[in-house]
Amino acid sequence: MALVTTKEMFERAYKGNYSIGAFNVDNLETFQAVIAAANETKSPVIIAITENVIKYFGISYLRHIIEAAVEETGVEVALHLDHGKSIEICKYCIDNGFTSVMIDASAKDFEENIKITKEVVEYAHAKGVVVESELGAIAGIEDDLDVNDKYGQFTHPDDVVEFVTRTNIDSLAIAIGTAHGAYKFKPGQIPHLRFDILDEIEEKLPGFPLVLHGSSSVPQDRLALINQYGGKMKEAIGIPEDLLNKASKKSVCKINVGSDLRVAFTGEIRKFFFTQPEEFEIRKYTTPARNAVKEMVKDKMINVFCCAGHGVYSK
Q1: How far, in Å, CA of 120 to CA of 94, rounded?
Q2: Which of 26, 169, 187, 284 is the residue whose CA sits 20 to 30 A from 129?
């Protein structure tokens, strides 16, 4: 099986009331962990790559590593550019084997966002690649979230039909209360997703795949492991997995996770160095870190996104 686009993945997910996990990988080990989890659970999966990771890996290394994994396992994989901030980086990834790209012009005004997104869509579709774009403001680690405001910086349902129609995008990332990074909420703040806004958008775009970014849950046992063995992570609160599970049963077909993988990986590394300071063999500490990520991803595929068993395999 070759790399695939997300088009058929999302069609099945929408009809089957589950979501596909899009996992941000940072190195070979986290990539291997995600692929192994997908293989063991028979899940479709999206490998999400940022521009910084492209610079770290090199785009040829990335493409060939992922193609080798697909060839070896038969896992259904889409290779996705996450948060492409320019037309140029989107075209670069399209020309270098990515099957899906996200153009993120959400910081621009509505008309400029449409203009930029439309140019990427026209280029991508001509080459058989799908495009995701974003409306609304998905908060970053320093942003305040006012979930009591009716719309505020959240995605406005009245905008979505015009945006999707004029750009011809394949999926839409919406802002309903998720946030990037590990520090999504202030201490004591109760995580909350605006399902009322999601329902309004779903009503206006029936059958259209929606995306949630910034959906790490920041497992407290993993965070505690980091701090137990010398780390100094501050209190971090993520998106409760029951809320993500609820979203996956609606029109949300793709849920992005990144910080959870980093927290799991780092905790095992810190534990190893603390408990075995005499060791220096690289594989001895990357192996338990990789396994921790794999088990976390498997749990999300089975119990949160419910995409286990829905992959299409060539083997």
Answers
A1: 10
A2: 26
User: Which residues are tagged catalytic?
Assistant: 82
Model pLDDT for residues 272-314, shown as the tens digit of each residue: 999 999 999 999 999 999 999 999 999 999 999 999 999 998 7
Report the distance separating Cα 232 and Cα 98, nearest Å: 37
Contact (Cβ atoms closer than 8 angstroms) between residue 126 and residue 120: no
315 vs 313: CA distance, rounded Å = 5
Residue 260 in contact with residue 217, Cβ under 8 Å?
A: yes
Task: Give the per-residue pLDDT at 145.
Answer: 39
Query: Long-range contact list for 280-287, CB < 8 A, 24+ apart?
Result: 286/29
Q: Which residues of the chain have pLDDT under 50?
A: 140-149, 183
pTM (2 decimals)?
0.93
DSSP string, 265-290: HHHHHHHHHHH-TT---HHHHHHHHH
In this prediction, residue 190 carries a pLDDT of: 76
What pLDDT does 148 receive?
44
CA distances from 180 to 34, 189, 197, 216 (A): 20, 16, 19, 8
pLDDT of residue 160: 96
Q: Give the E-state strand segments of 128-206 in sequence order.
A: 130-135, 171-174
> Cβ contacts of residue 246 below 8 Å, gap of 6+?
193, 195
Residue 177, φ and ψ in degrees, nearest 5: 125, -5
214, 175 in Cβ contact below 8 A? no
